[in-house]
Hints:
Elements: H1 4-22, H2 28-40, E1 45-50, H3 56-64, E2 81-85, E3 88-92, H4 100-112, E4 115-121, H5 128-139, E5 143-149, H6 155-175, H7 180-184, E6 187-191, H8 193-201, H9 206-212, H10 214-228, H11 231-255, H12 258-308, H13 312-358, H14 363-375, H15 381-390, H16 399-405, H17 410-434, H18 445-509
Parallel strand pairs: 1-3, 1-4, 4-5, 5-6
Antiparallel strand pairs: 2-3
Helix pairs in contact: 1-2, 1-11, 1-18, 2-11, 3-8, 8-9, 11-18, 12-13, 12-18, 13-14, 13-17, 13-18, 14-18, 16-18, 17-18
Bound molecules: guanosine-5'-diphosphate and magnesium ion (MG).
Guanosine-5'-diphosphate (GDP) is lined by residues 50, 52-58, 71-73, 95, 149, 151, 192-194.
Amino acid sequence: MRNPFVEIAQNLNESKRVVATNHPNHQVDSVYAELKEKLDDNTLQVMLYGAYNAGKSTLINALIGQEKATVNDIPTTDTVDYYDWNGYRLLDTPGVNAPIDHEQTTIEQIKRTQVMLFVIREGDQDSKDLYQRLFEMIKLNKKIFIVLNHQLTNDSDKVTAYQKIIQILCHKASEYGVSNESIQQIKVLSMNVKTALTGRLKDNHPQLLERSGYSEFIEVFDDWLKSTDNQDNQLSGIKSAVDELWYKPVINQMTSGDNTVRDELLTNLRNNKNMLVNRQRSLVVEARNMISHELMLIKSDISNCVQSTSDQAQLDSQLQRMIDPIGDKLETWVSQRLGEVNALLNIEVSARLQQSLGSNNTAYIDKAVKGLGNMATPDNIKKVLVQGRAFKIPGLKGRWEKTLGKWAGKGAIAVQVATALWDVYSEGKKQDEQNVQERQAAVSLYQIVDDICLAAKRDYGNVAEQVITEILDAQICALDNEITEVIAKENQTQQAFQQVLDYQSQLNLIGY
Length: 512
Ligand SMILES: Nc1nc2c(ncn2[C@@H]2O[C@H](COP(=O)(O)OP(=O)(O)O)[C@@H](O)[C@H]2O)c(=O)[nH]1
Ligand SMILES: [Mg+2]
């Protein structure tokens, strides 16, 4: 034999882990304890509901026959007070349209209670938001008993007031999409609550109780409570409380705005990555152009040097002096360009950071953004790489220093080329002097200079390409890791969300 209350307890236990990790405000333990307690406690709770000043507290006092509940013209409490009465529990709430924190107390209590004693003050009965709340409750399948609290003496006025409220209920039903059957289940009675209280306090003064409408009310209300207080209602009450307090907050949390932050983060990470890939390509081309340009500027110097030098060692050192500064310039140039790329990366990411700080940012977004933020650098590329280490870019340690080493000696290769060619050239020059006919055989000066420049251009170009590629590859790889992590987290969230939905529908299926 299945016991649905045991099944609900199981449902709570099984879902606890996934609910706990996604429940807002980390209140899971207290909510869990509260729901478990509710499962064990089968006292029917009746929540007094209505505008403040409607006469809720006065009605409670009339019911318990004592002035225990605080009656006040101004809303004074933001707590829910409990009064035991006839084996039921009456809950006095601050009411609708009370100050905002009082109203919140009422809203929280609604989630926990199935049975409502709705008090409407005569004269208030066409207030629009009162009905909005009433119909919200009808839609949540709450059991509702309406007391129209009036001070009318004339019988025909009483009838008119009563009819008016019935008319409004039927009229609004279609507006709120509620069936006529649901409306018919609502009990409506009118009563002068204050007179009823006076009668109760005066030793149950028969005329006062009769005249106020209390006598009729208490008979109908008692029957209504008895019919309401059954296992089916108890079960649907606890199920609804579990849904409201356990699943809905988690589902709301998981479907709230966070998604857009995550989507934007992904877009941003991908944009940054594309930017890096594009810059990587264009920087290599720009670097080679820059080297060509610099070499062109010293072409005639090289030519003069080759022509005027008669000693090989002298040629070496002179060429070295001309070509080495290009390496220095290139190093500065690449540093600056890479710095600019990182500054671009930083601008976009810090905009992202500002945005996500404004919203409900989760830890992983925080981490991703901070991680990227750390890659930001002033104008010194070395700092990027030092911080890149903090960002755990694998193998980045010392990479810059190592790559920098590659600049050195590049000029030397060009010089070696020059030396080899110069040998032939000077040989040819000697022959040339001796034999004008053999002039054509000699390597032309033009060719030597050109070959020197080509060698320098190729070697410097390669090393620039290597530096740009390696460094930006490391950053592209870091972005790729972030993208993978965000997507993995997203999948994880999706799975958790599905689990919560599954547990929620399991709960819905529980019954006798
Ligand atoms: N004249 C009159 N005053 C009432 C009636 N019911 C409540 N009150 C007064 O309205 C004020 C608020 O009543 P209370 O029961 O505290 O309303 P609650 O805010 O709904 O709990 C008190 O001053 C009551 O004396 C009524 O039927 N007639
Ligand atoms: Mg009150």
